[in-house]
Amino acid sequence: MNTYKLVIPRRRARVEIPHPRIKTTIPPVPATKTILIQGKVPGSIQEVWVAQSLVILREPFQYQVVLYGGKQVRGGQVLDFLLTRFNTPVQVFGDRWHSLRTAEDAYNLSVLETLYGVPPVVLWGHELTSPEATLTTVRRRLHL
User: Fold this and answer.
1) pLDDT (mean) for 31-45
2) Cα(2)–Cα(60) distance, integer angstroms
3) By CB count within 10 A, which of 75, 86, 105, 120 is most buried?
4) pTM of the model
5) Closest Cα to residue 125, out of 40, 17, 49?
6) What average pLDDT does the segment 22-38 reach?
């Protein structure tokens, strides 16, 4: 008596070759999801780096200072950093959202200058590319 073994053909595993121009890695989860600055969630990783730089330089600051009702009130705004020793406002502008230098940005900066008596320091996203570059930029731009 002949016995036959039933052989089920296996499907070949499909091997995908990544395209040279397409990134196949998944970007890491931003650190801003778990890091808090003075109990508040930061708006960007650049704000985290600026806060770390100010701590390293031992410069006292307040984070996300609500002015004139904040973003919920027309004409209100949220200041990114206020250096309490010099009463100097500091804004972190990302290159994507603030690249056009809109009339709203100009108005907000003029309100800050009127309120604090000194022009606000604007730190641009292209200046804040890494924690080390941010420390150098903060030290240079804020004269610390």
Assistant:
1) 78
2) 88
3) 120
4) 0.72
5) 49
6) 59
Are 105 and 98 in contact by the 8 Å Cβ rule? The answer is: yes
pLDDT tens profile 90-115: 999 987 766 656 788 888 899 999 99
Looking at residue 114, what is its pLDDT? 93
Structural contact between residues 62 and 40, judged by C-beta atoms closer than 8 angstroms: no
> What confidence tier does 52 reach under pLDDT thresholds 50, 70, 90?
very high
What CATH architecture does domain 46-141 belong to?
Answer: 3-Layer(aba) Sandwich (3.40)
